[in-house]
Amino acid sequence: MNAVSRMAAVTSWQLLFVTATLSAQSISIGLRGTGSFPTGSFAQQQTSTNDELIEGAKSGFGYGLDVVVGVGPIGIYGGFDHIKFDCQTETCQSDGTYTLQGVTTGVKLAMPMVSRFRPFVKGGVTFQDLQGGYGSSSSNVLTTDRTPGYEVGVGLDYSLLGIVSLSPQVRYIGQKFKAKIPGVTTPTTSTAQGVNYFTFDLGLSI
User: Fold this and answer.
1) Per-residue exposure over 161-192, b if at least 16 CB sit within 10 Å of its own CB, e if not
2) Residue 19: left if φ>0, alpha if ψ -120 to 50, beta else—which one?
3) φ, ψ for residue 183 (rounded to 5)?
4) Measured distance CA(105)–CA(77) in Å, rounded
5) Could you report how far apart the first and last alpha carbons of the chain are, in Å?
6) Phi, psi of 100 (to 5 degrees)
7) Which residues of the chain have pLDDT under 50?
8) pTM of the entire predicted model
9) Scanning 6, 163, 173, 206, which has the fewest C-beta atoms within 10 Å of its C-beta?
10) Contact 76/68 with Cβ under 8 angstroms?
């Protein structure tokens, strides 16, 4: 009888723990607009006639989607980004662009809420690829394989009526790519080039 009582007590505590965990769990889905600013060699003006270089990017805009599953202050997030940069080099011509697209997964740590504001920090691994359109010619296109990178960010969630949140944030994203251009032979020993940028995002989540 004592054994049955102990098993019942343990089961009850397990049920209470699971119930508490589920009740504390939160799921949010958000859309965001993105203003992006390239840094480093990605933003430099064309320094040589080497067509393999990924450079000359200018500020751009894009959009994204985030999904966060959290328990207490800790959240696991997944995101999608589509960002288009202007490209101003002789290779790009006047209407060239760079387009970055990919997904991210990482951890989001929320601070204690102050009034309606909840600051957070986040960091994760990105999986993006890069495409470059060099002028109007459809054959003159730069592509890359999808490679892993990283992102770190800070921001805050501002609760509106307890239903939706307005979420400004700043992120820094870094990764390296090897360019592939039709008609240009890229040595197998060529060095991957850094494609790094800041984003200023404004999102709305539920």
Assistant:
1) eeeebebebebebbbebbbebeeeeeeeeeee
2) alpha
3) 85, -5
4) 6
5) 49
6) -105, 135
7) 1, 4, 7-24
8) 0.81
9) 163
10) yes
> Residue 189 and residue 67: Cα distance in Å, rounded?
38
Q: Which of 84, 104, 197 is CA-nearest to residue 146?
A: 104
Closest alpha carbon to 142 in 58, 62, 52: 52
What digits encode the pLDDT tens for the residues 107-143?
Answer: 999 988 777 899 999 999 999 999 887 655 555 678 8
Longest distance between any two alpha carbons in the chain, whole Å: 85
Q: 């359109």: which residue's tokens?
A: 133
Q: Phi, psi at residue 89, to the nearest 5°?
A: -135, 170
The token pair that represents 165 in the structure block: 């949140």
Pair of tokens at residue 19: 């119930």
Long-range contacts of 102-106 (CB under 8 A, 24+ apart): 102/126, 102/127, 102/128, 102/129, 102/146, 103/78, 103/79, 103/127, 103/128, 104/77, 104/78, 104/79, 104/80, 104/151, 105/76, 105/77, 105/78, 105/79, 106/76, 106/77, 106/151
Place of tokens 């949010």: 28
